[in-house]
Design goal:
2 copies of one chain form a homodimer. By secondary structure, chain A is an alpha/beta fold. Chain A has 9 helices and 16 strands. Chain A has an 8-stranded parallel beta sheet with strand order 8-7-6-5-4-3-2-9. In chain A, strands 1, 10, 13, 14, 15 and 16 form a 6-stranded mixed beta sheet that branches. Chain A has a two-stranded antiparallel ribbon with strand order 11-12. In chain A, helix 5 links the parallel strand 6 and strand 7. In chain A, helix 5 packs across helix 6. The longest helix of chain A has 23 residues. At the A-B interface, helix 2, strand 10, strand 11 and helix 9 of A face helix 2, strand 10, strand 11 and helix 9 of B. Chains A, B: Pathway: Amino-acid biosynthesis; D-alanine biosynthesis; D-alanine from L-alanine: step 1/1. Chains A, B: Its cofactor is pyridoxal 5'-phosphate. Chains A, B: It is an enzyme of class 5 (isomerase). Chains A, B: GO terms for molecular function: alanine racemase activity; pyridoxal phosphate binding. Chains A, B: This is Alanine racemase.
Chain lengths: 341, 341
């Protein structure tokens, strides 16, 4: 059976880099959405708890329920089924129109659209939003935004969004004074933004991809993050592929000499994105994927019982014309996760 | 919440085409591996049972256990944890060397490599394989092979593999007579092969992708299969994107005029493969994906509450330079499945 190894030392190494940048552990919220970016939400939560992380960010209520015992504070980013099930749950308000659907006494983080133009209320709706939420007896526990381009140091979007968010913070402070309500927590940094700031003024940062050892940015001064996931597959069957013989669907790989090949139990049905004959991938030990990856198998010029398919997905992301996030996040939940040192 | 609709009428339509081609229902085994190619293994199993299908094919023991109450006969294709848990389970033997690991009294289908050179014993190992299995008191209930190129009518692989498999069948008949054992079931057809044969001589066919409404072949006479899955997403948030404003990561879509846009709750974290700004996709109703698909969201020039993202994945497969199989199979199990007429 294929398996995913989670390298604890690498995770703790990344967390220490994040912690150093954020300033203190109370300022660190780790993003665990989409099965912790494919790593395994329970396994990663247990390790984060061991490290001392108190805050987590997830996509929906279902994910929040899974990890409720691991964290003191959980922010749910994209849910329309708001509820006050747990006092530690906080729900993002992504749209002014959704206020009418909120139950009383819920914890809400107001998302403000500072330039990404995807989710969030408009800056000019800020006061109205506070008014309507206070009227409904809703606890406004956070105000936040999201960067559209923090990974691109050549763009001015980052500075512009920061400037706008600073103004929003000032306005929120005034509004809170007027309504005599507690100041909410402010947050705006994703992984790239965290490592671009000299110091963090916000109350906390939301760190996803850097936790897992990647950062998609064109900055030349990158933190020394280490991927924490490696993917391993097991041999199903071996044979000699004779000179002139082909292997797999379409027979797209033909051998120029007699070689020893084996089939391994991983394929795109497991979320390992399909490689075809035009995409050439080599494993960390130098084995080549021969021909097409099929739904449940791939073939390598190897005879080993167990093979590391990747311990870093940067090359795969390049081959697939995508980002590291997609390669790791699509991996099936059914693959066994194992924590190692 | 995003959802997957499963169109029962389309499934039954496809099954009728398959049944007509196979000859009788006892000759039809439906492949349900990888969560029924992403459709939902339980939902599809319940519909297949209603239709009257008796045989199923899965990848591993875990999948077999899930559907054991729906079928009379389950073939497990890729397992190394062989066991005799259930008298209706049959395990593929993918390699001669694995015989030593087989427990007694297990049901085994011998896979023979007739040219794909991926899994299976070699043709010259056939007699030895029978000898060793009989010696271990193992029930040889099937002998089968897999086509490497049945979807390519320009290649001669299909005929060559058929010819070799015919010879293997003759040899098996002689061996069984000699050992005084019951003749195993023969099977070799996948979806493409099924629709290339005039009539089916084998004992049954293993139909995967055609069940779900697709066939990846260059034949000009295609059966009229209908996709049974459609993917739907829900609106999270709406706004006006003003002339000159951009949306999403990198701001890669910039509007030439004021337009109404909305964000919907589906992304590559749900297994809907990532589209970037160079890949242009339009939904069945004509809405365009604006900019990049992110982990949990995509943006459309729509204001509708619920939008059909696809009801046929052929275009998406083309855009992603892959096959329909991958687009449907990678969809997350966490997306709700609903059966509709």
């Amino acid at each position: 059976m294929a398996k995913i190894l989670l390298h604890k030392e690498n995770l703790f190494h990344n967390l220490n880099l994040i912690l150093k940048q954020a300033g203190k552990i109370q300022k660190v919220a780790i993003v665990l959405k989409d099965n912790a970016y494919g790593h395994g939400i329970i396994e990663i939560s247990s390790l984060l708890k061991e490290f001392g992380i108190k805050k987590a960010v997830v996509k929906n209520f279902k994910e929040a329920l899974k990890i409720k015992d691991y964290f003191d504070y959980i922010l749910v980013l994209s849910n329309k089924n708001f509820n006050n099930f747990h006092h530690n749950f906080h729900f993002a308000l992504n749209c002014f129109e959704l206020i009418k659907d909120l139950p009383n006494n819920i914890n809400v983080h107001i998302k403000v659209d500072t330039g990404m133009h995807r989710n969030g209320i408009l800056p000019e709706q800020l006061e109205d939003t506070f008014f309507k939420l206070v009227e409904k007896n809703i606890n406004i526990t956070g105000v936040f935004t999201h960067h559209k381009n923090a990974d691109n140091i050549l763009s001015k979007d980052f500075e512009q969004q920061n400037l706008l968010f600073s103004k929003i913070k000032e306005e929120v402070k005034k509004i809170c004074k007027r309504f005599s309500i507690k100041l909410p927590a402010f947050h705006s940094c994703n992984s790239s933004a965290l490592f671009r700031h000299k110091s963090i003024e916000d109350d906390f940062v939301r760190v996803g991809i850097a936790t897992y050892g990647y950062l998609e940015t064109n900055s030349k001064t990158l933190p020394n993050l280490k991927p924490i996931m490696s993917l391993w597959a097991n041999k199903v069957s071996s044979r000699i592929l004779k000179k002139g013989e082909s292997v797999g669907y379409g027979g797209t790989y033909t051998s120029k000499k007699d070689i020893s090949i084996s089939t391994y139990d991983i394929g795109y049905g497991d979320g390992f994105l399909r490689l075809n004959e035009n995409q050439h991938y080599t494993t960390p030990k130098g084995f080549k994927v021969l021909g097409r990856v099929s739904m449940d198998f791939l073939t390598l010029n190897s005879n080993e019982e167990e093979v590391c398919i990747f311990d870093n997905v940067k090359n795969l992301a390049k081959i697939h014309n995508t980002i590291s996030y997609e390669i790791i996040t699509t991996l099936s939940k059914d693959i066994r996760r194992e924590i190692t040192k």
